[in-house]
TrEMBL record:
Pfam families: DUF6510. Residues 1-13 have a biased composition (Polar residues). Residues 1-20 are annotated as: Disordered. InterPro entries: DUF6510 (IPR045423). It comes from Streptomyces parvulus. This is DUF6510 family protein. The lineage of its organism: Bacteria, Bacillati, Actinomycetota, Actinomycetes, Kitasatosporales. It comes from the Bacteria.
Length: 95
């Protein structure tokens, strides 16, 4: 997954859209998560992120500068998670 800091086009959902998929791999309640953008320094609750998707997965971006905060891509029995626009990704078993 290449780093993408350009402004996306189209409509977005709020960060609460990430709660369901993240709850499949995290024990903590995802909606209590707090994030900080490494580019502009904005921080806030997960719900403030702008989420685009659903295909091929969900991409959450900083609402101030559009920096990628995380990407989640479902695969049968697994979920791929990339944090902060990193080039690597985590693969979690969901089934």
């Amino acid at each position: 997954m290449a780093q993408d800091t350009g402004r996306p086009s189209g409509t977005h959902q709020d960060g609460n859209r990430l709660a369901g998929p993240l709850s499949e791999i995290l024990r903590a309640e995802p909606t209590t998560a707090w994030w900080r953008c490494p580019d502009c320094g904005r921080s806030g609750p997960l719900a403030e992120l702008h989420v685009y998707g659903p295909e091929p997965g969900l991409t959450a971006r900083c609402p101030a500068c559009s920096r990628v905060a995380l990407r989640m891509v479902p695969e049968e029995g697994h979920l791929w998670l990339s944090l902060g626009g990193a080039t690597g990704a985590f693969r979690f078993r969901t089934a």
